[in-house]
Amino acid sequence: MGLLDDKIVLVNGGSQGVGAAIARAAVREGATVAVTGRRPEPGEALVTALTAAGGTALYVRADLSDADRARSSVAEVVEAYGRIDCLVNSAGLTSRGTLLDTTPELFDEHIAINLKGPFFAMQAAVADMVARKEPGTIVNIITSSAHGGQPFLAPYVAAKAGLIGLTRNAAHAHRWDRVRINGLNIGWTATEGEDATQRAFHGAEDGWREQAAARLPMGKLGQPDEIADFVVFLLSERSGVVTGSVIDWDQNVLGGLD
Asked: Rounded to the nearest 5 degrees, what angle is found at the Cα of 110, between the Cα atoms of 248 and 223?
């Protein structure tokens, strides 16, 4: 049996990067998957590939910075499949800003996508689970930078640190509803989005991934498929009663000094 047999899984920000890897892993483990994204091309291409491989998948176009759209994307999944069993909040904005140069507009963008979107998607998903009196699971993709991060990630860190608090608060509030909510603080990860960010903000050129990997303890950046396998485990019953945990999925150790 697959770890997610017969489960309805929504992956927000699931059209590329870590989200797409989670969608593929969930389908492989027996789930019916819906993915959201702002751009239809990668979302529809992913759904086509998943369907061609024998899975059942749905693309929902959504800008999760809009709270109403975050809620209605869940409603579309419930309308299509009758319920939602699992939610993954993987959408994220990583544009740069320091304490001194971040504008109110940039700050609001980070809060909208990295915190408000997950909040209202969780609200809608948990409401469906509670109304049906059925258990469910949620995993929020956060970041190891939420512990402090680099100076140029000030608004990103502020929003993601809020998501850590929200994860624990919601997990505590709904543990008696048997809704388990956990978070994953991922480190530096090899995704299409990270490649674009490195080139746009740090002047990276071809070969930057290999150079970065050589400076890391495990000799590689985090891999989306490995993160996806861990997320599937957290979504599944094999992770037992664990809720309210925010796990550092990284190769650098918090508090460790050289």
From this structure: 35
